[in-house]
Amino acid sequence: MVFYTIESLRNKKISIFDTTLRDGEQTPGVSLTFDEKLLIARQLDKLGVDIIEAGFPMSSEGEKASVRKIVDAGLNLKVCGLARVIKSDIDTCLDCGVDMVHTFVSTSDVQRISTIKKSRDEVYSMAIDAVEYIKDHGAKCMFSAMDATRTDADYLINIYKGVESAHCDIINVPDTVGVIVPSAMYKLIGEIAKNVKIPIDVHCHNDFGLAVANSLSAVEAGASQVQVTVNGLGERAGNADLAETVMGLHALYGAKTNIKTKYIVETSHLVERLTEVRMPPTMPIVGDNAFAHESGIHTHGVLVRSDTFEPGVMTPEMVGHKRRIVLGKHAGKHAVKQSLEFAGLQPDDEQLNEIMKRIKDIGDKGKRVTDADLYSIAESIMGNISKSEQAIVLKEVSVMTGNIITPTATVKAIVNGQERLGAHIGVGPVDAALNTVTSILGEYKFKLRDFRIEAISGGSDALAEVLIGVEDEKGRIVSARATNEDIVMASVEALVAAINQLMRKR
């Protein structure tokens, strides 16, 4: 079932313009190297984005070189460069060999008077001259009336008609400060579409959390291209999020894009890692909790049929995500029983009731219930505690660190019945210890999904609680915690506990 709101949008093709490398990099605190930008550009190409705004070449020599190298990277997507309605800006974009020049000028009275100090007639002439100059040099042109949603409507349409007459290829309607509401956006785009026949693109900011809604409303009204960023990055509160916009188009409207949606989560994680802007777990579509369930009613329903408490028109597999059943004080018996069965534990009804009671006790204390907690509780109640079932048994852990010594850890452990000794360096003592544990596992591969350290008592000898989540090559995820006065030991113990449970699941 597709819950499209307008029949004409069903199967309509919408172009995706990604500005992560330009507006996304303007996120306060974000600065990408050229290699990182190229990595993101290649990922966006893999994802199926139609066109990327690679940067603002005139802003610096490094930016210009970066845009030129992305142009020369042999990508399938089109590359766009940003330019003011100034010939030197445009020439710099053209020198980079971009497929399209995106030129802009402020049109709202508040920006026009306060920033560029030009009359309406002067702005109109500057826009026409810039578009003609770009077209005379054989490049595609997109024109933006900056702060369009606060611009006098008659003047806005007049300037768009002017650039259309100058053979502009596409116009952009930016909600530069994120103040329009979806109903007003629908009306604005509809009015522009009546007067201008070239394609309409929108660029929505998220100051009131409406960027995606405004983008979708614009498409309803006739826009054929939307500007987005990965993870909604951008100035202030950011831009329309790529994942939310694309999946809204696909799943709710039945529209089409060239996006290969199975790479959406992969792309989000890459950009999160490179920008170091962490996504909240509740982030729609790509967040850790997007397809996670804890409530007993919800987990029971989802285990029987996934669309009982999920959209149905969008599954985790569509976007490269995984469904998770999370344990906690709201957990139901079905979820707990299934988690135990995955680990080869089959409690009877009485044992299951006692396990449920212990889990809820932990949750009532404000603690997260990890997989290792569950298995430990279950084994205790079922009388199955046995070190012989553990794939890894720690024997010794030692760490050397200091201002003139590269942090180095040595770990001795019994791995699958054989004693192993390993040593490894790291950026710090915890990293070195975790790297060493990884090195002695041999062919068994996993990746760290979550790592948190919290002090749970005061003073320099405070107890440290470490919570770790790991994932194996088949996508199975488990979590574990450990508490110790020594942060390194707590980290190693938590990692070993998680790996033991993960290997048991195998």
Describe what this molecule looks like in 3D.
The chain has 506 residues and is of the alpha/beta class. The protein folds into three domains: 7-275, Aldolase class I (TIM Barrel); 292-385, Orthogonal Bundle (Recoverin, domain 1), CATH 1.10.238; 391-505, Alpha-isopropylmalate synthase LeuA, regulatory domain (Double Stranded RNA Binding Domain), CATH 3.30.160.270. Helices cover 39% and strands 20% of the residues. The chain contains 16 helices and 16 strands. The protein has helices at 34-47, 61-71, 87-96, 109-116, 120-136, 153-165, 182-195, 211-221, 242-253, 264-275, 296-304, 333-342, 349-364, 371-382, 429-439, 487-505, and strands spanning 15-18, 51-55, 78-84, 100-106, 140-146, 170-175, 200-204, 225-228, 292-293, 324-325, 392-400, 408-415, 418-425, 446-455, 464-472, 477-484. It has an eight-stranded parallel β-barrel, surrounded by nine helices. A hairpin with a 7-residue loop joins strand 11 and strand 12 (408-415). Helix 8 packs across helix 9 (242-253). It is elongated and about 85 Å long. The two termini are 36 Å apart. The relative contact order is 0.08. Residues 296-300 have low confidence and may be disordered.
